[in-house]
Amino acid sequence: MTALSGSGPAVCIGADIDTDLVIAGRYLRTKDRSVWAQHVFEDLDPGLAPRLKGAVLIAGKNMGCGSSREQAAVALREAGVLAVIAPSFARIFYRNSINVGLPVIECEIPGCHDDMNITFDCVDGWIAVDGKKYFFRPLSSRMQEILNTGGLVEYWKRRLER
Amino acid sequence: MVTLSEKILGAKAGTYVDRQVDRAFCHDGTGIQAKLVFDRIGSPKLADPASIYVIYDHISPANNSQTAELQAELRDFSHKNGVNFMDIGSGICHQVMAEGLVHPGEVVIGADSHSCTLGALGAFATGVGASDMAGIWISGETWLRIPDSIGIHLSDVLPAGVEWKDLALSYVSLLGMDGATYAALEFVGEAAQSVPMEGRLTLCNMAVEAGAKTGLFYADQETARYLALYHAPVDTQVPENPSYVRECFISLLDLEPVCAVPHRVDTVEPVTKLAGTPVDQIFIGTCTNGRFEDLKRAAEILKGHRVSVRTIVVPASEGDYLKAIRTGVAADLIQAGCVMGPPGCGPCLGAHMGVLGEGEVGLSTANRNFKNRMGVGASYYLCSPSTAAASALSGEIADPREVI
Ligand code: SF4
């Protein structure tokens, strides 16, 4: 199950963060999903990983550009990120995130700083930042369904049972 | 009024469709992840094994026993399920698929971001991640949003010493790393038809570096000539007055040799400005520029000389490798002091076979120069095969127009 709404402290990262920076190529060849969470953002800022549990990641434009590695989205989810918010996403990262059960929200949050507290609701399409509200287009019903079931694995399990 | 993407996918830009996938491919890296997702779903039946391709290129041959075990697992799975399996040495997945397997008008999905390369053949080709690939294995289809299209109009001819790679780097710099996010690029205009297939593959390959979903050329006489080599039939396509959300007009005559400088692919400088920058390693290869024609242009510059810096050459496919051997291109490169690796991605992803050390500077014909990608603490420049070869002679970034 993925929570389509939630609340947590902001962790701010920059624009054009590529998937090599989320999880480096040298850690990809394993079945152990916890390895990716351990090394998430290692080449960007090794101090980030311990702060991700229960946090809302706020990125700049073009979040997740570059390689198609799904491990990037898995790493963030396994590290405990509740949702990723960015003004724009690279499309494969966007798709991968939904598929692994990590909510992604296209919305610009000006002046991101780490003390902010973020509340989000993907069903109604709003984010509250220290009391101020921002609105975004709610996720499509199919994306909500995939997220709701916990990702594509659960989604397909259910579809095949029907 | 219809773009090529709209025509192939059968719906208007902005709408969502479920489309049957004609060819679905993955490599050793994404394939094993797709297999693990597939297992977690409960290993149902594959919808259409004949349309599935598994091609080993990323860490090929395996660099350690962990990689070898993962590769063994996927190899075994591929054989048991009767999918098309191509083992180490076949070449980079995109190039292998381009050698007669993909046809104009098809929907092609690869578990790799550079799957857009195959738009060069007039197919709708784009990349997805591992779970999406597992979903395609199970259902034979996937959901797609029909992209808007950006028209890249080409005119005139390339000056000597300037390559399609210089155009690729130039258009990425023009659009920016996210300038085409979610859109498809269509290469059109009077000069588009004169772009040879190797150049089309290079140009479409880099579409994703501007955030695009794919890059496309309309299938024409050149597509027919190229696919005839593989005895593949071609229905040509013509632009039907497509409506573009943005248009760029590029005269090839205005182009010059360029490099993308560390660590952004959209930050491009003319080679004349960078000339004299010392480099520690040169790499000629990848799905962008590891084709026979790329190797040949490098060999023409290097023949009879000796490189003064370590230079790695990796052919994109077995076919490219064989051609390089039969024509003497491989011998010229080796005699000039280049090291040749087996067909595949080689050092492109920084996993083996030429990883850079801390503080080292690399010059590569690849498509991506993200920080740390080819070695932690290293930096590198991207360029054309001719620029790479000219630079190999002196060990510094050099203008190929001075040596051809
Ligand atoms: S050559 Fe490089 S960019 Fe191309 S598929 Fe291989 S790793 Fe990716």
UniProtKB/TrEMBL annotation, chain A:
Which keywords appear in this protein's UniProt record, sorted alphabetically?
A: Lyase
Q: Which InterPro entries does this one have?
A: Aconitase/3IPM_dehydase_swvl (IPR015928), AconitaseA/IPMdHydase_ssu_swvl (IPR000573), IPMI_Swivel (IPR033940), LeuD (IPR050075), LeuD_type2/HacB/DmdB (IPR011827)
Q: What are the transmembrane regions?
A: none
State the source organism's domain of life: Archaea
Domain Aconitase A/isopropylmalate dehydratase small subunit swivel stretches: 55-102
Give a Pfam family name.
Aconitase_C
The record, for SUPFAM superfamilies, names: LeuD/IlvD-like
Question: Could you cite one Gene Ontology molecular function of this protein?
Answer: hydro-lyase activity
Similarity comment text for this entry: Belongs to the LeuD family. LeuD type 2 subfamily.
Q: What is the name listed in the Swiss-Prot or TrEMBL entry for this protein? A: 3-isopropylmalate dehydratase
Q: Which organism is it from?
A: Methanospirillum stamsii
Q: What lineage does UniProt assign to this protein's organism?
A: Archaea, Methanobacteriati, Methanobacteriota, Stenosarchaea group, Methanomicrobia
TrEMBL record, chain B:
This protein is called 3-isopropylmalate dehydratase large subunit
Write down the Pfam families for this protein, in alphabetical order. Answer: Aconitase
Q: Which UniProt keywords apply?
A: 4Fe-4S, Amino-acid biosynthesis, Branched-chain amino acid biosynthesis, Iron, Iron-sulfur, Leucine biosynthesis, Lyase, Metal-binding
**GO molecular function terms here?**
3-isopropylmalate dehydratase activity; 4 iron, 4 sulfur cluster binding; metal ion binding
Extract the NCBIfam families matched here.
hacA_fam, IPMI_arch, PRK00402.1
The record ties this protein, via PANTHER family, to: HOMOACONITASE, MITOCHONDRIAL, HOMOACONITASE, MITOCHONDRIAL-RELATED
Give a GO biological-process term: L-leucine biosynthetic process
Give the top-rank taxon of the lineage listed in the UniProt record for this protein: Archaea
For the Aconitase/3-isopropylmalate dehydratase large subunit alpha/beta/alpha domain, which residue ranges apply?
17-271
The cofactor(s) it depends on are:
[4Fe-4S] cluster
